[in-house]
């Protein structure tokens, strides 16, 4: 049984709590003993709404951790509060599973990484898209060698959500709030790391966001591979999936993936002709996952702790996805190509 305190009881906490309640292994193995929010009424409301009636609720995280001495902290606060929440949790001997982004800046992420190493604590970050059947099947396909050596990944992300609230007021909204998911998915799929980026960011005419609703980014990767990202959060009509729409090109063939279940492609099957003959790419079977999305991340986190291994989106891996985001922002602001390799050391 893992004893957990949840901090940050806003919108996203509902997704976590539903995942925990509805996933047998999580409902069985996690005891939510405390709920904390700057607004103590919200903490109490959230605990009651999901049936955690005997949990303690309040607004002071340090006092709650002092009183309850939990094993882990589930951190779902806004990015600006992440550093102090994680520091407080580490100071009380807790491992932490944080919502994305890992930190509000790369400097803060480096600080948290150093502190985790110093205190011997596990810190993992929610990258829920790593825990979906489609991406696991794509990863298996790439690792099978069917496409040969991967030379390019292309991701399109075009949606027109009207969130209201903070997203419509913030700077770099697409890159900061959403693109981290697609960038992390690219790193998960590609057996190479991004080394540099050139990014152009715009806020197109008609955008209902105040800044940066669209971006085009070109990443260079180790081994000569490239990753291109075209994204917009103010594209009305013809939506892609939230997981983006992908084209993966290898030395033997190409595959299209809609971000959901549809994967189709072809590989070269002969050496003659203007266009060489092709055959349909052989796709691996879909492997069913015990838990998906947020439930998958939480299950991986508690299982990894029990097994003494690193979770899938552990801090020293996730900081590399965060570095892609901040390098893309720096490139957009300066108009220069920005090196990433030094930023993650
Ligand atoms: N993984 C995903 O798909 C996904 C989706 C949406 C949001 N998120 C992330 O989840 C996090 C929370 O987003 P949200 O939509 O729930 O925001 P929200 O504003 O609805 O909720 C955040 C809550 O944190 C509380 N809070 C802030 N600072 C605090 C502190 N120091 N101590 C205690 N409580 C504090 C606020 O009072 C608020 O209730 C963000 O980092 C966001 O990027 C992730």
UniProtKB/TrEMBL annotation:
GO terms for molecular function: nucleotide binding. Pfam families: GFO_IDH_MocA (PF01408), GFO_IDH_MocA_C3 (PF22725). Signal peptide: none annotated. SUPFAM superfamilies: Glyceraldehyde-3-phosphate dehydrogenase-like, C-terminal domain, NAD(P)-binding Rossmann-fold domains. Residues 135-255 form the GFO/IDH/MocA-like oxidoreductase domain. Residues 3-122 form the Gfo/Idh/MocA-like oxidoreductase N-terminal domain. This is Putative exported oxidoreductase protein. The lineage of its organism: Bacteria, Pseudomonadati, Pseudomonadota, Alphaproteobacteria, Rhodobacterales.
């Amino acid at each position: 049984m893992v004893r957990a305190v949840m901090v940050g009881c806003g919108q996203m906490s509902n997704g976590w709590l539903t995942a925990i309640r509805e996933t047998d292994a999580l409902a069985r193995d996690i005891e939510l003993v405390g709920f904390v929010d700057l607004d103590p009424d919200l903490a109490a409301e959230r605990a009651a709404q999901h049936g955690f009636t005997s949990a303690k609720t309040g607004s002071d995280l340090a006092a709650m951790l002092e009183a309850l001495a939990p094993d882990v902290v589930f951190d779902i606060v806004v990015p600006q509060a992440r550093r102090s929440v994680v520091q407080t949790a580490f100071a009380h001997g807790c491992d932490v599973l944080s919502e994305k982004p890992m930190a509000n800046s790369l400097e803060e992420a480096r600080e948290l990484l150093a502190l985790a190493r110093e205190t011997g604590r596990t810190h993992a970050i929610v990258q829920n898209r790593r825990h979906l059947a489609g991406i696991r099947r794509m990863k298996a396909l790439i690792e099978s060698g069917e496409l040969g050596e991967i030379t390019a990944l292309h991701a399109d992300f075009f949606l027109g959500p009207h969130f209201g609230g903070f997203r419509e007021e913030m700077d770099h909204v697409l890159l900061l709030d959403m693109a981290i998911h697609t960038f992390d998915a690219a790193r998960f799929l590609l057996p190479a790391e991004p080394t540099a980026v050139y990014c152009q960011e715009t806020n197109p005419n008609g955008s209902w966001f105040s800044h940066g609703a669209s971006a085009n980014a070109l990443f260079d990767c180790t081994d000569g591979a490239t990753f291109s990202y075209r994204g917009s959060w103010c594209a009305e009509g013809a939506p892609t999936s939230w997981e983006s729409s992908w084209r993966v090109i290898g030395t033997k063939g190409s595959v299209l993936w809609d971000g959901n279940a549809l994967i189709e492609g072809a590989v070269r099957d002969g050496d003659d002709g203007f266009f060489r003959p092709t055959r349909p790419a052989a796709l691996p079977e879909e492997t069913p996952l015990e838990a998906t999305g947020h439930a998958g991340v939480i299950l991986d986190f508690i299982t990894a702790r029990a097994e003494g291994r690193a979770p899938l989106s552990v801090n020293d891996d996730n900081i590399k996805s965060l570095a892609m985001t901040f390098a893309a922002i720096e490139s957009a602001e300066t108009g220069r190509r920005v090196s990433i390799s030094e930023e993650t050391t």
